[in-house]
Amino acid sequence: MATDTVDRRTAHLRGVTVTTLASLAGIAAALVSSTVATGATDRTALFVLVGFTFAQFAVLQVIDTAGLLQLDVDEFGAKDVLYVVFMTFAFWYVSWGVLLTSGASL
């Protein structure tokens, strides 16, 4: 019973960490896209999104290697990778859309 509780806690902590990092990476990518891109049709914003997506996999690997959390990044399957990419894209899309619509400049 105690092992089951520890495994559930580890899985929950892994999910929260991956989701939080993907969300923050998407918002940060939107802020950088708003600064770098000239408008909604500028492809530079997509390069920023791709860069932040790859960077967060490196950050997850560092967190796992340093032993801060047991994330098992090496065991990420297609479902895990697609989840991270989609969450990052979704937060980037919504955040950048709000920034473009409001006309905010950073």
In short:
78% of the residues lie in helices and 0% in strands. The protein is mostly helical and 106 residues long. Helix 1 packs antiparallel against helix 2 and helix 1 runs parallel beside helix 3.
What does this structure look like?
- The chain is mostly helical and 106 residues long.
- The chain has one domain.
- The protein has helices spanning 2-36, 44-66, 78-102.
- The longest helix has 35 residues, at 2-36.
- The mean pLDDT is 89.
Question: Key terms for this structure?
Answer:
106 residues, mainly alpha
How far apart, in Å, are the first and last alpha carbons?
A: 52 Å
Strand content: under 5%
What is the number of E strands? 0
Alpha plus pi helix count: 3
Shape: elongated
Indicate the low-confidence ranges by residue numbers.
none
Mean pLDDT over the residues:
89
Q: How many separate domains?
A: 1
Determine the structural class based on helices, strands and strand pairing.
Answer: mainly alpha
- Could you give the order of the helices and strands? HHH
The radius of gyration computed from the alpha-carbon positions, rounded to a whole number of angstroms, is 16 Å
